[in-house]
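Reviewers asked in the last cycle whether our approach scales beyond single polypeptides. To address this, we selected a multi-component target totalling 657 residues and predicted its structure end to end. The input consisted of the following lines:
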Amino acid sequence: MAKEKERKDDRPVETKTWRAMYRTMVKIRLFETLAGEYFAAGQIPGFIHLSIGQEGSSVGVCSCLRPDDYVATTHRGHGHMIAKGADVKRMAAELFGKATGYCRGKGGSMHIADFSIGILGANGVVAGGLPLIVGAGLSIKLRRTDQVAVVFFGDGAANRGPVHEAMNLASIWKLPVLFVIENNQYASTTPQSYSCAIGDLCQRAAAYNMPGYGVDGNDVLAVRETAARAVAEARAGQGPSLIENKTYRVRGHFEGDPQKYRDAAEVQRWQAENDPLRRFEDFLRRRGVLTAKKIRRIEEEVRAELDAAVAFAKESPFPRPEEALEDLFV
Amino acid sequence: MSDRLLTASAALAEALIEEMTRDERIFILGEDLTAHAGIFGQFKGIPEKFPGRILDTPISETCIAGCGVGAALTGMRPIVDFHFSDFVTCGMDELCNQAAKIRYMFGGQVKLPLVVWCPDGAGLRAAAQHSQSLEAWFVHTPGLKVVVPSEAADVKGLMKASIRDDNPVMFFQHKRLFRREGPVPDDPDFVIPLGKAAVKREGRDVSLFTYGSGYFLCQEAAAELAREGIEAEIVDLRTLKPLDFETVAASLRKTYRAVIVHEACLTGGFGAELAARIQAELFDFLDAPVLRVAAKDVPIPFSPPLEDFVLPRAADVVAAARSVCNR
Ligand SMILES: Cc1ncc(C[n+]2csc(CCOP(=O)(O)OP(=O)(O)O)c2C)c(N)n1
Ligand SMILES: [Mg+2]
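The resulting structure, written as structure tokens, was:
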């Protein structure tokens, strides 16, 4: 928060966009909070990974995208989905394993997708999205459109081999791709400082001759500024960029994670001092874009929307067992 | 020497601790191993007992598998943890083109004592990319041994044998069975040789050939069949490669009827291989076609009613057994 105060507030006011971004961040925060609650209550099967505290990255990047742009996400993908415009009803229904969910109950939390708005899927395989997004970028180039293709991945994913193949290929062919690392400082139990030979993952861009940006990922407007530039360059045919959004995973790796690998105090410090939602809220209030009253209204509206989504999910039927045999081939 | 009740997970840890104590060349390599003693707690006690011999890697399956191969070629006896068996796809070259081929391709010059530990199987609502049973891929790759234990004692005895083996061994252990308890001998020399099946229930009417989680379906089915007057013999294969076909044959020569049960999907599964061998080598001992009980041929879906529908159930084993017994 200190950073915001030092920084001159000289950005042109984008009232409507900022309000929409704020609303989306509130929506992600609440969606994740509810998902955690229903998971703990045993109503969501399997396991889930929440993105609380990383809303600055998902919303900052997706605020620069059009509905026809592509996004590939990860096991921690609810936020990216919502930021790209996914329907929270169908997301909630998928988490609950219902027939009305995005994937008709076949996918669950780790495998949501909405191809109608360019979301090429969450992924249960770490770094699985990178080679695919290069293919999407190639397709854009071959079809001669000005779309862009964005892949989100983690600091842990950054150490898998396909990441390097993807970045090199996207660069030599100058594909319209954004590689967005969400460096939340942990990959499951493993700290980023242990698993990566360098601290600033954006430096890896140099090896692939593309721009690399290290960004305060909990400053949603800083993320937006950087992503806007990278998107503009990609649309203009100037090739890919690597953005590293530095952030923090405040929840466990998965819900129920015993988290013996870090101090509770470390988590509390991040929550208290560097929450992307609170930071943006403070900024918007200082700039007079939002008042306490307006904030409450947004929270209430979002709460109502998500309550309706949960109710929809709960009331929806489970798929019929035989549906398990559908959707394999066209 | 007496038996104690241990979970499959504790049986694994005990095997590793005993073997690591015996042989300093053994070490464990993989992701997220020390903080929580493996993501399933399967290496309980090992990080404290053997610091420096259980190594956390970055998420780099290609290199994890490759490091295992390279270390095995140069005097160490690595155990590689694949986190979820599904991610073997990310180390496939190292496992199938390198580990499986190196000894043969180089004319038998070198040994490759590598154990690849793969937690596998469905039933945890973990969906398509965290639920597979992929043993058949490796059975289809000459140069790899393939082990799939069911009960806790098998886990311990087969892990010890796998570690002592001088060849690459794929070791598949079912995630849903980690907490399942079973009697385990506390003899430190308790080793179950690779390539030895076990007749775990004797019966005269039908042979149930199975392994891994399928064993428990067969147990349940056999109890039900007994109530109907059908005595099933359960043969737990334990090792798919090398396969103990002698025990299979001995059982079939007694029952004349075979049902093969596995959790992996039907088409191209291990059941197909075993059925082919049975008809080729034991045709005269068959009173009925060999039937297979397996998962349906789709990826594992997330939603509980869908997943339950796809996986084989004890009732399917009962139905198949009745059918071959003409009941
Ligand atoms: C290829 C592969 N290896 C391992 C895993 C198990 N796994 C799931 S998430 C995860 C950690 C990922 O860390 P990171 O990329 O930093 O993303 P984050 O969870 O922090 O969002 C691991 C090891 C996996 N799903 N896929
Ligand atoms: Mg991370």
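Chain A touches chain B through 41 residues (CB under 8 Å). We regard this as preliminary and will revisit it once experimental data from Aim 1 are available.
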